[in-house]
Amino acid sequence: MQPPYEECIGCIATKWCKRYSGEAPKPEKPDWCNPRFRLMKALSLTNIPKRYINANKYNYKADEFNKPIAKELKPYLENILREVNDGRQFFFFGERPGTGKSFHAFMLLNQYVYKACLTNQMDFEHPLVYFIGYADLMNELRYNRDSEDLSKVIEIVKNVPFLLLDDVGAGTTSEFTDEQTFLVLNHRYNNNLSTAFTSNFTPKELQTKLNPRIVSRMLSDSVLIKFIGEDKRGWRKPNA
User: Mind telling me which Gene3D superfamilies this protein's record contains (predicted)?
Assistant: First the structure.
């Protein structure tokens, strides 16, 4: 099949693009793909790691453990614009690493980018979604709090429409991390901004690591999903 644009080669959207499949006609002008331009610009602002840039429902591999999770998340994925605009939160937890918590959270973030980048919510300067690891954020706040670059990151973390705060509870917790976490999450809570959390701790266990006021805000209007199963990252024996 001849792709409609040169930019189609290597584009992550070909699995669902109606222009690529021929379901939608290619406009006569311009001769370049504006939706792809908007998508790639939106993704470039997200801080999503390269490993997860293709985490979406089109690349999803179901197994005995995540099939029920996929079923539960389906309506949220299908209505992601409405869910984020309504301030929906997601809390994915499970004591074992590698069970898919982060992948499923990135599915939500990416789906929102795919949809929102084609609306007037996309302004080409501010991210639609943003990813940051909890321990990394706390470490930066502890040692680089006066950094101008960090101030910009904190502004994004507090105000981005959809935030993924990954591995909550990881690292050293203290009164300082409690205070900084509360400042961020209380701002997002008060402004009805969507946040996805992943953690190796249950909500009850997190209350022993973080101030209960923080956990209460994390769980407010939140979709709670427990992840079980084996570590999908696995361990590969090197070739002899």
Answer: P-loop containing nucleotide triphosphate hydrolases (3.40.50.300)
Beta strand segments in 27-124, E: 89-93
Q: What are phi and psi of 162, to 5 degrees?
A: -140, 115
- What is the Cα–Cα distance from 186 to 103, expressed in whole angstroms? 26
Q: Does residue 5 belong to any structural domain of this protein? A: no
Does some domain include residue 144? yes
pTM: 0.92
Range of the domain at 148: 47-226
- The domain spanning residue 69 has which CATH number? 3.40.50.300
Asked if residue 95 lies in contact with residue 228, where contact means CB atoms within 8 angstroms, the answer is no
Q: Give how many domains the chain has, as a whole number.
A: 1
Is residue 130 within 8 Å of 164, Cβ to Cβ? yes
The answer on pLDDT for 234 being more than 70 is no
What would the pLDDT profile of 53-91 be if each residue is shown by its tens digit?
Answer: 999 999 998 888 899 999 999 999 999 999 999 999 999
Percent of the chain clearing pLDDT 70 (strictly above) = 96
At residue 236, the pLDDT reads 41
Which residue, 153, 81, 165, is CA-closest to 117? 81
Position 143 in a domain? yes
